[in-house]
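Q: My labmate handed me this sequence with no annotations at all. I'd like to see what the chain might look like in three dimensions before we decide whether it's worth expressing. Could you predict it?
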Amino acid sequence: MGVPHTAELLAESRGEMASTTRPEQNVVWTRGKGCLELAEILATGEVSRIQGDLAQGCIENRADFVVAKKMPGSFELANVAVPVDFEADKVTRVSATVAGGPHSELAAATASRIASALGVPFEIVSAHQDSDGLGDAMKIVAQFGEKFPSADRRVVQAQDMNELADTAEEGSLMVVGAPGGAWLRRSLFGSGTRIRGVAKAGAVMVRSAPDRVYRFMGDPVYVAPLLHAQDTLRLHKEGVLAVADEGVLVGVVRRDLLQGAGRDAVATVMEDPISAKVDATIEEARPLEDTFGPDPIPVTDHDDHLVGGLSLPAA
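A: Here is what I predict for the chain of 315 residues:
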């Protein structure tokens, strides 16, 4: 599996994993300045370049993170990072600017990972426009400080991106969440253009995505429809099993029905096919646990080809 979306990165920052290892993270990248460099920092292994269909490339590579030169529209299959004027050798500090929005947690986790890879300090920063917002900014910094106890913390007053950047040290790389609902997003980070040329050592904008089935699936576990029921019982221990014919999911079969079928073909006792789509969210697939229990849930593409078996992560 892979982010880990953000949960495993948070565990890493709290010291719950050995300092010599990082949680597995599959990263793909598209052509653009700084994209390969950032991808190699975020990944735990080899990175893959995507030149064709981005969604298909993510599925084929089980991608947790996409590093791209711009935010890819409504794409939500994987986390996205966009480097802006990013040059790793100029970075002396990594600053995660958080505002409690939907992508702030990923921004902080990504900043922590970059800082660790580069061997530089890491800080959590939240901004407010006036005294009315000071309390909320302090609360946000405190909350993220609990998740990242090794990080420095700052609360600053700023009206725009220029003022916020002026408070940072030379060599500071800013990591921010994509535009969202919070004031900080609307006022300061409306677009990559506002960040370009302002952050002292470049910036990285991130956008989080829900966990998808393809990231957690393994190889498909299935039986052919013409196999004898008694042979299936001997070869498989699953309580509910996928049935596939020439790569296409054609049904599922229950062990208790096989037990009374003797030498009859599996097809005689199989039920209608049930599967999770390869690009579905984990939450969309979770109701299938009622049917399959601990057994692999069949995963299909949109042409009903059986492409994997899903073991659901803990809720």
